[in-house]
């Protein structure tokens, strides 16, 4: 019985060492994820004011503004790119080559 107990104890110690090594790996990965999360949250906090400002600017648009934009045959490139990206997001289009200003 004593031999079985010793054998079980050795086996348990081996498993304990494996678990401790895996815990080190998991802890390192958890620290990495936490660091990335902190960076992402800091970046998000820095762009939130810009997003809020853009949302406020959108609140000032009216249907006449949209009609004016749609009737432009050759809008300024910045406006065209912006409207194209909005169209792609809303319509879930992923290939910009297939998006024509007339669709936007």
Q: In this structure, how is the largest beta sheet organized?
A: none
Task: Provide the domain count.
Answer: 2
Q: Note poorly predicted spans.
A: none
* Count of runs of 4 or more consecutive helical residues: 3
Helix- and strand-based class?
A: mainly alpha
**What is the helical fraction, as a range of percent?**
over 70%
Ends distance: 81 Å
Supply the key terms:
mainly alpha, elongated
Give a quick rundown of the structure.
By secondary structure, the protein is mainly alpha-helical. It folds into 2 domains: 1-60; 62-104. The protein contains 3 helices and no strands.
Description:
With 104 residues, the protein is an all-alpha fold. It folds into two domains: 1-60; 62-104. 78% of the residues lie in helices and 0% in strands. It contains three helices and no strands. It has helices at residues 2-59, 63-70, 77-91. The longest helix is centred in the N-terminal third of the chain and has 58 residues, at 2-59. It is elongated and about 90 Å long. The termini are far apart. The mean pLDDT is 88.
Secondary structure elements and their pairing?
Layout: H1 2-59, H2 63-70, H3 77-91
